[in-house]
Specification:
alpha+beta, N-terminal domain of MutM-like DNA repair proteins, Helicase, Ruva Protein, domain 3, four-stranded antiparallel β-sheet, three-stranded antiparallel β-sheet, 21% helix, disordered C terminus, binds zinc ion
Length: 284
């Protein structure tokens, strides 16, 4: 990459896209591939961090990539769990890599959102997480937006009516915009490029709140596995489809802490249908 400038840093779904200029100056011959503009596509995985550091500063543990910048600093990538990914891509390779991604949730129109969601017989939670439907929505923001829109995570996309789909799009956009302003949610050790943790976790209404009261109706937030992921929801505000099973609430010890309980998170108990009769009759 010598001789290239980072011209822009963009968000692309869950990836960071660093646009690199054409190679310039004497280093032109030493470039990887041709000298045309290229890109770095970076995914931080669970624990990745990318930030500039003074070149003289000792490397932190789990530093995997160092890129020397022209101001003497180094752009360093650290990743303890190594789920992250970084690819250097020429224009054609980048275009190939980006096909298959769904719509940007902040830019998607009402019509396209409705068509992508309501035309599918998969569960709404799975659709929100599917990067080929929408790019960039993860587990936290899927649960938060479904809670806000009062839609149960296990409902099928095709069973949502137009109004519900429109509400979901609106609240998803509100939540993502607010989370971006607050630099995301730091659940374990996420830090942004300035080395600051996110603050959106203080605004979570469903995610990670199992057993705590719903902010709307005071019913206890429950958890279930939907689309292979822990999903948090209010069983009252977000009526479930028939035959839906949720996980039993964790038993609590005298000090209010969760007991180490082997059945927590594993045993499924048949749930009762909470669906109202009007919903049963509705066919979409
Ligand atoms: Zn509620």
């Amino acid at each position: 990459m010598p001789g290239r400038q980072i011209e822009a840093v963009e968000r692309y779904g869950k990836f960071m896209l660093l646009r690199l200029s054409a190679a310039q100056g004497k280093t032109r011959a030493a470039t990887n591939g041709d000298a045309a503009p290229a890109s770095l596509l970076v995914h931080l995985g669970m624990t990745g961090q990318i930030a500039p550091s003074p070149a003289g500063q000792p490397l932190e543990k789990h530093t995997h990539v160092c890129m020397l910048l022209d101001d003497g600093r180094e752009l360093r990538y650290t990743d303890a769990r190594r789920f992250g990914r970084m690819a250097y891509l020429t224009k054609t390779l980048l275009a190939e890599e980006l096909t298959g991604f769904g719509a940007d949730p902040l830019e998607v129109s009402k019509e396209e959102f409705t068509q992508r969601i309501c035309g599918r017989r998969a569960r709404i939670k799975a659709l929100l997480l599917d990067q080929s439907v929408l790019r960039g929505v993860g587990n936290i923001y899927a649960d938060e937006s479904l809670w806000k829109a009062k839609i149960h995570p296990a409902r099928l996309g095709a069973r949502l009516n137009r109004k519900e789909a429109e509400t979901l799009r609106r609240v998803l956009q509100d939540i993502l915009r607010k989370a971006i302003v607050l630099r995301g949610s730091s659940i374990s050790d996420f830090l942004d490029a300035e080395g600051e943790p996110g603050e959106y976790q203080r605004h979570h209404r469903a995610y990670g709140r199992e057993g705590q009261n719903c902010y709307r109706c005071k019913t206890r937030i429950r958890r279930a596995i939907v689309a292979g992921r822990s999903s948090y929801f209010c069983p009252k505000c977000q009526p479930s489809p028939r035959w839906f099973t949720m996980l039993p609430l964790p038993r609590r010890g005298k000090n209010g802490k969760e007991k180490d309980n082997a059945e927590t998170g594993r045993m499924l108990r048949p749930g009762r249908s909470k669906r109202r009769s009007a919903e049963k009759k509705r066919k979409i």
